[in-house]
Amino acid sequence: MSWLRRLLQPSTKPTEVKKDYSPSVRYAMEAMPTIKFDPSVVTKSVKADLRRNVELLAGLEKKHARQIYDAALRSVLAGRDLRMLSTALIEIAGMSRDRAADIARSLHNKATEQINRERTVSLGITHAIWLYANAPCMKDPFSSCPTAADIRQDSAHRAANGKKYEIAKGLFVDGKWARPGVEEGCKCSARSVLPWTTPADAKPSAAMALWYRKCAEQGDAIAQYNLGLDSVTGRGVPQDYLQAYFWFDLAAAGKPQADLTKLAVEAREEVASHLSSADLSRAQERTRKWVEGHPPKLYAPEEE
Length: 304
Ligand SMILES: [Zn+2]
Known about the structure:
By secondary structure, this protein is mainly alpha-helical. The protein contains 12 helices and 5 strands. It has 3 domains: 2-121, no CATH class; 125-193, no CATH class; 196-293. The strands form 2 sheets. The chain has a 3-stranded antiparallel beta sheet with strand order 2-1-5. A two-stranded antiparallel sheet has the order 3-4. It is elongated and about 70 Å long. The two termini are 34 Å apart. The protein binds zinc ion.
């Protein structure tokens, strides 16, 4: 399973920094942390898309586009090095700090969306759930006050939160087919709907079950919920109600999809009715310990 190997053993080979960048750009590039990120996900089409998005930047001089693209690519390859790209935008294109930060974030979000889309397709994942970041999705953050279009986009994206959509198509939002993190100013993201949740009798491979578990252990509420279901049915994992309660309990505590929380709570209560009170206490203790050891994560595009 090459994708699994990719996932578990991401390349951490540092990229070389050369070229005649200014000392502060070079410093930012060299200081980039070793992030577990697999550069092979940055495919030709991801690069082409990035180049196009750089070329489309308003007010960017053509002579700077190449250097900005280089910096953008390098920061994407570094996992998500917003600081490096911001520094390059300030140094090379003479942008203000705020504008540079915003453009760096926007270029990254678009690249991330494309990478995720390609990867999910290669994993056989067809659907995702739209996640609103609880930060306004405004088209132009520099205007003194939001325009009607800003407000419309933001409220449409807010309403899209938690909605399931076909990755190939996107979600019909604000009068058009859209994908999270793509529209100007959009800070939304997505969570994949894991494919082996349906049909119920599908047998997950050992490798998939492992990946699944990895996601659940990283705090992915969808994976936790699905692992709970599998623990009830014994699909791919040993049948274990106590373990199922544990996963449902975690999924119920997870954020941010209200519909999933409701399902997880229902499933948890159903499983609880099959447990002795001693087992129930053990399961709850297991959740408590897990929550203690795993501080909540924010499922949203990272801010600088
Ligand atoms: Zn948005």
